[in-house]
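Why do we bother with holo predictions? Because pocket geometry can differ from the apo form. Keep that in mind while you read this record for iron/sulfur cluster.
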Amino acid sequence: MTTTNTDSTNGRVYIETYGCQMNLNDSEVVASILTANGYHIASDLADADVVLINTCSIRENAETRVWGRLDVFRLQKKKKPSLLIGVLGCMAERLKDKLLEDEKLVDIVVGPDAYRELPVLLRSAEEGQKGINVLLSREETYADISPVRLDKNGVSAYVSIMRGCNNMCTYCVVPYVRGAERSRNPETILREVKELIDEGYKEVTLLGQNVDSYSWVDDVGGRVSFSELLEKVAKTDSRLRVRFSTSHPKDLSDEVLYTMAMYDNICSHIHLPVQSGSSRVLELMNRGYSREYYMGRVEAIRKILPDTSISTDIISGFCTETEVDHDQTLTLMEWVGYDFAYMFKYSERPNTKAARRLQDDVPDDVKTRRLTEIIELQSKLSEKSKRNDVGKCFEVLIEGVSKKSTDQLYGRTSQNKVVVFPRENAKIGDYVNVEIKDSTSATLLGIIVKK
Ligand code: SF4
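The structure, written out:
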């Protein structure tokens, strides 16, 4: 959960964000639209005239958390009856007017493609008119809007390059709540990147549900692919770090890998969700690749970009998953040697193809046991990956002060690994060379060394 921090005069809006990086970036777009319309962002729920909660629907527990927050807002509304409450994002899109059923709670419901409507809907709500706009768009990319940055460090920022997804993985709600895939005009992406450089940012992360299928076609039929966009962004400033997320194994091209190899400022990390190590389960998930094809992509990464770290997403206990399928996930993890992974047990989402066509037949205790085995294996792999870094030197971009001690700073390597080290004369936003002396389960520990 993230909140923002500037107080001011009329229409103070408190924004709370749940879910993925796309949602964080969307809340920055919302903050921009509202500040451009006379609203100001409140740092504290207690000071707010309007509360907006930007929600996630990816798993059941994500929505459960939002219902919990809405109960808190209900109490706040009892204390301040004029308070307006708005639900944004994927849950707003999935549940639509169901969220308005409780007369005394939610005032406006706005889907991910309708944020331009927020000022109008808020004005009507101030006059007692509840509002909803959950229309999905085939064009909307908020390309002309410069997000109001909500991060605290002023070093790293998200830049959305596309919206929606066409992949239709059978377990996923994203295509239903974020709509069809559409790429953003590259000129507007480069404009936003240059604005960030002018504001002193040192790193950008290009965001999309599947960045590899980015494809912009201009009025005369000229096309810009993801590898070409990546090159354009890398060329804006050789001291600007460039990251991207999320890749899709079926679309990850060698062009992207060679472009990464050509530019030192494109970071050596790829997030390549696998979800399962079993080709049979991947077929049921409609992932569009087999175990062997995925391994081929990893081999290409290892050949073209030997120093690149790979992270992934894994789902345990998908419909009909057997012990044999599960073992294939474990052996694939071992073979890749992931540096990091996001791991979850299958959570059936309403109206997805899997919910409509497949049985959620793996007992919950079996899902949990398999997930535990996956997590245990990954923590061994992550530890091994960090131990391999001891004795090596890495360029680190400093992002902040260590939670443990103000004498220590932290930052990330190009491989997206967190490093903690004594601050000496360095400051947030600096690039420093750090020699790795040790590692914990979560971070690398080092000291600053001369270049
Ligand atoms: S690629 Fe699949 S899992 Fe990812 S957002 Fe699209 S449909 Fe969902």
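Residues 1-8 have pLDDT under 50 and may be disordered.
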